[in-house]
Each structure stands twice: as C-alpha cells, then as structure tokens.
Amino acid sequence: MKKILVFFLIIIVVFIGLVYLSVRGNDKEFETCKILNIEDVENIDFHDYDSVLVAANNLYKGGMVKELMQGSNYREAWSTPVKVPVVFLDTLKGGMKILEEGGGKQTHSLKLESKDKITYTLRSITKDPKKLIPDIAKTLGLENIIVDGVSAQHPYGAILAAKLADIAGVLHTHPRVVFIPKQERLGEFNDKYGNRLYLLEFETESEENWTDFPDVKEIIETDDLQELRQKYGQKVSINRSALVRIRLFDLLIGDWDRHSEQWGWIIQKENDNFVATPIAGDRDNAFFNPDGVIPSIVTNKNVKPLIRPFEKDIDHMKGLVYPFDIYFLYNTPERIFIEQANNLQDLMTDEKIDEAFAVWPKEIRDLNQSEISAKIKARRDKLVKYARSFHQVIENSELLKEPLKGSDDLDLEPGLLKCFECE
Length: 423
Prior knowledge:
- Helices cover about 40% and strands about 15% of the residues.
- It is α+β, with helices and mostly antiparallel strands.
- It has two domains: about 25-150 and about 170-210, no CATH class; about 210-423, Phosphatidylinositol 3-kinase Catalytic Subunit, Chain A, Domain 5.
- The strands form three sheets. Strands 4-5-6-8-7 form a five-stranded antiparallel β-sheet, with no helix packed on it. A four-stranded mixed β-sheet has the order 9-11-12-10.
- A hairpin with a 5-residue loop joins strand 5 and strand 6.
- The protein is globular.
- The termini are far apart.
C-alpha cells in the first residue's frame, strides 16, 4: 500500500513540475500581431501599402513540454505570416464612423456605421483573456494556462466557417481579415486599436438590411426579439427550420459557444405578422482544438461539459445544447431536425468541403486543412444520428427558469421566460 501511495505521490509531483515548466519563460498576458515586411511600424505611412505580411500572434510559440502539457493546438497557424489587406476607415464603404466600443471578455471590438447606415463590427483576431484569469491562477503563477488556451482557437476559423456556411445555405456575417493601421478616424481608440489584425463583418443588429432577404424591417438581437414577442404575442414567430439548420451546422464545424448574445434576427413583416430568421455571429470557437494533458482534463465532460473539443465524433451532446436551444426549439418536431440533417449531408459534399479551404492562404491550408476537413466529413456522415440526439436532449430538458444570457434586465411574462412560444 505504501508503495502505491509513493508512486501516486511521485506522479503528482512530476505532473506539477511539468505544469510549471510548461508555463515558464512567458509571463505576457497579451500581445498583438507581428508585421514582418515593415521595420519601423510606428513611423511608416501605411497609405503606401495595399497589404502587409503579418503573423496573428507569436505569443503561443512553445517547446516540447508546453505542447505535451498544453497542447499543440493551432500554434503554427497563429505564428505563420500571411498577406492581409490594409484598410482605412475614412475610405472603407464610402467612409465609416465609430459608434461605440464593444465589451467582450476576450475580443476588442468597435461597432461601425457606413455611409448608407449599415452597421459593421471590427473584432480583434488577437484575443485578450486577462478578464478570464481567476485569482487562484494569479496566486499560483499559472496565468499562462488561461492565456495559452486561446491557441486552441483558429485565428482564421471564422472566414472558413463563413465559406462553409455559404455551401450549407446558412446565414452569416461575411467576415474578412483586414489590417487596420493607426489613423485619424480611430480617434481616441487609435493607440488601442491601431496597427492590429481584425475580422471586419456585418453586425448582428442593424436598422438597415444588409442581407438578401426582402421586406426586412430591421435586424435585431435576441433580447429585442423577446420584447417584440411580448408586445405582439403570436404575431411574432421564428423560422424554426432555419434555426435547426444553423445549429446542426454548428455541430459540423465544432462551434460549441452559441449562447443567446451571439445571434441576430432578421425581422420580416408579412401583413400584421413578423417572422424572425436567425443569423449566427462570433465564430471564434469554430474548429476549437485543445489537446495536451491540461486541456484534455479541462474539457472532460465531467469537468467543463460546455467546452467541447472538435473531434471526429461528438461524445457529449448535452454539452452542446444551450438554454438558447431549449428556449427556441422546445417542442419542435423531430422530422424537422432529420430533414435539415439530410439536406446538409446532400449539400456538404467532400468536394465542396475541400473547395471551401481556398478562402485560406496556402500557408494556413497546408497546416490545417487535412485534419479539419477529415473531422467535418466524419461529423457530416453521422449528422442524422446527431440530429436525433440533439432533439432528444432538448425535449428531455426542463423549460427555462432563469433569463437567457443578455436578457436579465427584461421584465418578461412568466410564459415568455420559459420558452419563446410558451403561453
């Protein structure tokens, strides 16, 4: 018995030692992109350049111990230089004005408005996870475990997700990668937001219609949709088939982070009725790929059930069903899930999936296409099975007792608190 205890004690000591070795040598909590083809970045006139060669972030480089303990993840993609267009806000879309700064936990963002009143957003590709670091990690000197976790996100995952969404017939925000140099139009945000890499995309709320849908009254967020339902009752409905399709698409691309604040709704008015069709925003966690000893422990379904790694198989469907799904899809017939799964299988052919990767620079395709493509295809082949399971989890769940994320301040009727179409 003593030998067994000594053995386990040695294992624990070795584990702790390897953890500290893996975080040693990098105490930075944030670093922005690295421009490679320009030496004096602060004094250069970027008007003379139409593009720059830039690495998204070199913060996640690591040796054998770091990769063993914290995973190889997408480290190479973050540090690989790619060519990115230079964009100035005063000439973009006829001239952009800044409406406000966003308040994400990791993402620095600016909400913009174009000359034709379309709302856009700039979302930083480089993440700043300082707000997510718990006090215990700071006390133990293990901040780097949280910081380094960003390397499991793919820096260019959002643009691949958008291209795949086109194939799947799923609405998205049309993100593209841009470099924003320091410039007058940034005003008070120049130091914080200048000389950085961003996703430029449509915002999931806008007074003006940026979609191809006709008769659009406005594009609103989830809490505004709830208020619309409370005001007009059964005259307001959602396009359930479209929402089911998007949620099954989310399963295909491994996007586990789909809470209610990451959605927009296209509101179409038909006579006295309103139909809301969903738009998915914020694809930071598509293709989320944590490996290594520590991430494997953290993403275990018994530890963090809602953080799901992107593997060829889905082993914990409950972790992918959010209160959002129960709220909007409770009592949806199973046949709709099956129909949408079959349709997605027909659309997402091997050839189309492989063609989608052309949206990435060759340097990134060479690193990650093979693995990600194989996982998408494996999930597609099992999509009908997943659709049934997803539906079953929703139907076996209790209706909501707490407000959706972002709806805490709404004074909703008891029925509308439980689900969107509860009486």
